[in-house]
């Protein structure tokens, strides 16, 4: 099945390329699920870009956020993926949400926020607790900005407490994570198709 939908994954790891990233592993698993629905995908490792602090669309002085923002606008589904650090999303992920805030002031020709037609799902990995809180914070921020969250639109993996192990070092994807990846991707594609066919009414 081929679609003309596009998915963009933002990898909010703290590790610049070509460093190995557990977040990249779960992203690739999700993108494989999207490919199964005929949806093409791309990953952006945000830390490889010079994303300035701030809440404007372009902070100037070589700010590369506008390049990422254009990719988001050209996509139908956003995968917001972050590692867990001291129980929270990474500082890179937090900066992404802060920079996305500028999208609230951008509207389409009917006055709807530009992200109203887009779906977002969240992926979290870590060797410490925090995934549920990170997902809750990310969902709230993404929804405020205008993204729509599908049913079971998050997937995560945390290792047991006080026994560090990275997701990228697992021999295989845990069955529960694989099942959740499949559901999240499938529901995201379904919702994106529905929004494309019938977008929210203008205010």
From TrEMBL:
Coiled-coil spans are none
Note the superkingdom of the native organism: Bacteria
InterPro entries tied to this protein: Flavoprotein-like_sf, FMN_Rdtase-like_dom
One protein family per Pfam? FMN_red
Q: Which residues form the NADPH-dependent FMN reductase-like domain?
A: 6-154
For this entry, the protein name equals: NAD(P)H-dependent oxidoreductase
Q: Which organism is it from?
A: Nesterenkonia massiliensis
């Amino acid at each position: 099945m081929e679609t003309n939908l596009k998915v963009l994954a933002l990898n909010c790891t703290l590790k610049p390329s070509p460093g190995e990233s557990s977040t990249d592993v779960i992203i690739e698993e999700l993108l494989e699920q999207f490919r199964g629905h005929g949806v093409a995908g791309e990953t952006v490792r945000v830390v490889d870009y010079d994303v300035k602090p701030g809440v404007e669309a372009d902070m100037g002085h070589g700010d590369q956020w506008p390049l990422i923002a254009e990719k988001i606008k050209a996509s139908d589904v956003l995968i917001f993926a972050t590692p867990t650090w001291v129980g929270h999303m990474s500082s890179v992920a937090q900066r992404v949400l802060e920079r996305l805030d500028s999208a609230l002031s951008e509207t389409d020709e009917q006055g709807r926020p530009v992200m109203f037609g887009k779906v977002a799902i969240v992926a979290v990995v870590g060797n410490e607790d925090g995934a549920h809180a990170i997902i809750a914070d990310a969902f709230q921020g993404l929804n405020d900005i205008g993204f729509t969250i599908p049913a079971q639109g998050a997937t995560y993996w945390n290792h047991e407490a006080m026994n560090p192990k990275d997701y990228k070092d697992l021999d295989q994807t845990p069955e529960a994570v694989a099942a959740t990846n499949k559901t999240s991707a499938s529901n995201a594609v379904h919702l994106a198709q529905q929004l494309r066919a019938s977008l929210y009414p203008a205010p």
